[in-house]
Amino acid sequence: MAQSPDTSPWFGRKNTISFFAAYSNDSSHILLGSADNRKLLDFGAGYNRRLIMNRIVNWQYSFELLPVALESDPMEIETIQQTVPTVLTSTLNLGSQALNCTPQSTAYSFTTAGGVTYAGTESFSCSGREWTIGEGISPIGFQWNFMTRDKIQPFLIGHGGYMYSTQPIPLSMAGSFNFTFDLGAGVEIFQNKTRSIRVEYRYHHISNHDTATENPGIDSGLFQLSYSFGR
Questions:
Q1: In the predicted model, is pLDDT for residue 101 greater than 90?
Q2: Which of 6, 62, 146, 207 registers the highest number of CB atoms within 10 A of its CB?
């Protein structure tokens, strides 16, 4: 039996499935987080359900699942430059994540019981990265599309959820279980009334809400590309 043509004046679906990739090359103190130089790489799927649609707005419930959520931390190294009694330089890989990569140096001087004085500089910096794999889910979310009669629609989006990682992030004394939320905006480009591509930018936050010893949090600017389809 042939389907009747879609005579709706709006570009919008009742149920939408999406597959997406998202990436952030850096982190900084945008609003809440203080862990710098983190990278994020996510691969996931989403489901949207239309709640209200008219000529002004398409308001949708939005759910996202991240079976692959990767987070990268810079690793901390210690460099000791001794000047007394002999000139000596040694570097030690501490094997732990650095909160930030701003070089920090401290002068030291002490005298042993045998009367020998040691002096120099102790410095901390970053070298190399460590990737941690995790998973995430955002069961609470909404998306608002505007200009619903047009094939190119600006939208706002936001989610709340959690992320679980195989080791604590972004520091060893932080948690493996973290809460997440994001707020963003973008453009949805409809190929037809059932298929579209979304390009968006989000403020993305990760933190453990003080459920672990340390809670520096990660603020990221996340770019996301999605392919969506449905009816």
A1: no
A2: 207
Domain count, the chain: 2
Q: Are 19 and 210 in contact (CB under 8 A)?
A: no
Nearest to 27 by CA among 40, 10, 43: 40
Q: How much is the pTM?
A: 0.87
| pLDDT in the model for residue 188 | 98
Same domain, 57 and 151: yes
Q: Is the pLDDT of residue 2 over 90?
A: no
The full DSSP string for 93-120 is EEEEE-S----EEEEEEEE-TTS-EEEE
Radius of gyration of the chain (CA): 24
Q: Does a structural domain hold residue 165?
A: yes
Distance from C-alpha of 122 to C-alpha of 184, rounded to nearest angstrom: 42
Q: How far is CA 12 from the centre of its chain?
A: 28
β-strand pairing of 104-111 with 57-84 = unpaired
